[in-house]
């Protein structure tokens, strides 16, 4: 059965297998690129990112993937960062599928931050996890649709969807005494926005002893590298994957000893 990625670019995605690596390449050659996978025109590395806006230039459509032996169709929407499937989501989904023995999600409690259209949460759910996918209030309707559409009748656990604005009311809505997760998943949550402090705070809130955080991100800007420095100071981190062509890295983080 076909497996492993976006069906519209199967030759690229189908046989991709990610392996653990300790190697990291310098990012000095990050340049402007057109990412035809997600139809977003990313800007070049900037010292400041005030002028950066993604240029979304396509019509509403369904993206089709095949992961863990299941066909997945994702309904994208308009006018929001959470309306598109970003490269980090494809990379993290591929990583989870390829490393299912190392990262066993079976019967694990999984939380996704900034889930967007829901691809990563769907893959985690199909791998047997009890998943809560979270995002901003405006995003959760399409997120719920995609999760429900792709997991109904296929999964042991019905995925949950919750509104979660980074840094907001975490102790109130997600008190650590009640909400404990085995895995926190994040894909392309770092890009030029003014909530990076709140994002790191939220990662720290959920990543407790016994939790593993997996974060996949396309590295575009100097501000992304700054966040990586802060991320490394906040957690014990390992670079699991680096995809130079896609400029995507996947980090694993656990609480510091
Ligand atoms: C670049 S998109 C990535 C979406 C998805 N993870 C993917 O890789 O396809 C960033 C996501 O973070 C969410 N987000 C941005 N700011 C947020 C905030 N302050 N609180 C919660 N989610 C936020 C957006 O709504 C969006 O879904």
From TrEMBL:
List the InterPro entries hit by this protein, alphabetically: Methyltransf_16, SAM-dependent_MTases_sf
The answer to keyword Signal applying to this record is no
Q: Which UniProt keywords apply?
A: Methyltransferase, S-adenosyl-L-methionine, Transferase
- Cite a single Pfam family from the UniProt record: Methyltransf_16
What are the recorded GO MF terms, alphabetically?
Answer: methyltransferase activity
Q: Does Ligase appear among the keywords?
A: no
Instruction: Extract one GO BP annotation from the record.
Output: methylation
Tell me the superkingdom of the source. Answer: Eukaryota
Name of the molecule in the record: Uncharacterized protein
